[in-house]
Amino acid sequence: DAGVTQSPTHLIKTRGQQVTLRCSPKSGHDTVSWYQQALGQGPQFIFQYYEEEERQRGNFPDRFSGHQFPNYSSELNVNALLLGDSALYLCASSPGQVPNYGYTFGSGTRLTVV
Amino acid sequence: EDQVTQSPEALRLQEGESSSLNCSYTVSGLRGLFWYRQDPGKGPEFLFTLYSAGEEKEKERLKATLTKKESFLHITAPKPEDSATYLCAVPNTGGFKTIFGAGTRLFVKA
After folding, report:
1. N or C: which end of chain A has fewer CB within 10 A?
2. Predicted pLDDT at B77
């Protein structure tokens, strides 16, 4: 049974560009959350999607947007990239709204902005 | 403000040297406390969920305990393969986001 799949694994972009990251949740999971993890830090919540709607948003600017598709897969879009956006972007899925049994995380997309 | 603080930031142990990691939290109406393990370049891997004070969970050399203000992850006779970053997290008050601590980086030397 495949877990959470993220693509691409690594990405290098230039300041000001836009990027789209993709996530396929674990089979049977309908909730997708996105996290940003800077080096040496814990994951920071960006937003969560459930039933194709953004359920909650963390303290991230509007440059960060997302989408969830009917098959529960999700995209994270970041516009006008800044050097500070360089981080590991993690997708986490869970069955239902509250991760009572813990999230299943993907291996992440390493984004480098130069 | 909901908050999770982990200590120490890093811990270096010899193989077989038992120790504990601490996670203190501030949240109203705890709806679970989660422990994850994260290896370099990978996503976090779920270990345990604890719901109420006094609860304990065990997995191999790891045991997690919970009080009303903090949780401990006890590592008994660790091995080099236990080297990783251990993350603690709680759901925020009344919401859908999970708040993570900065983690404890554990190094176990053979």
Report:
1. N
2. 97
pLDDT value at residue A102? 80
**Residue A87 neighbours by CB under 8 Å, 6+ apart:** A36, A37, A38, A39, A111
CA distances from B11 to A2, B4, B95 (A): 33, 18, 32
- Report the pLDDT value the prediction gives residue A101, as an integer from 0 to 100: 62
Residues 6+ apart with CB under 8 A from B4: A42, B23, B24, B25, B26, B88, B89, B90, B99, B100, B101
With beta carbons under 8 A apart, name residues in chain A contacting B45: 105
Residue-wise pLDDT for A11-29, tens only, equals: 999 999 999 999 999 999 9
3-state secondary structure (DSSP) of residue A43: coil
**What 3-state DSSP class applies to A85?**
helix
Report the residue from A42, A48, A97 with minimal CB separation from B87. A42
- All residue ranges of chain B with pLDDT < 70 are none
B5: Cβ–Cβ under 8 A, 6 or more apart, which residues? B23, B24, B25, B101, B102
Nearest CB to A100 within list B49, B87, B89: B49
Residue A13's SS3 state is strand
